Inverse folding.
């Protein structure tokens, strides 16, 4: 079967997961060679500072997910330290 890896949940495991998939792949009538898709988060901005600001939306969303809160992606904020507490 084809393989999809959600590296935005476990980015450090991406290459290990791809290696395991490829090394254990067995061809079939539907798929003769390994086929993988990787999901990653990318933030594009004019500067690192702007990218870090935009990233606060993802940080908030992850914290809310861990707290069992659902909803839309929150807007970026200037100070994550205030959000953590």
């Amino acid at each position: 079967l084809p393989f999809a890896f959600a590296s935005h949940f476990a980015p450090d495991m991406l290459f290990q997961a791809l290696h395991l998939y490829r090394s254990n792949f067995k061809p079939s009538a539907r798929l003769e060679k390994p086929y993988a898709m990787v999901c990653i988060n990318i933030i594009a901005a004019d500067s690192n500072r702007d990218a870090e600001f935009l990233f606060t939306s993802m940080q908030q969303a992850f914290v809310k997910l861990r707290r069992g809160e659902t909803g839309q992606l929150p807007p970026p904020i200037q100070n994550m330290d205030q959000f953590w507490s």
Q: What stands out?
A: The chain has a mean pLDDT of 94. The chain has two domains: 1-40, 45-85.
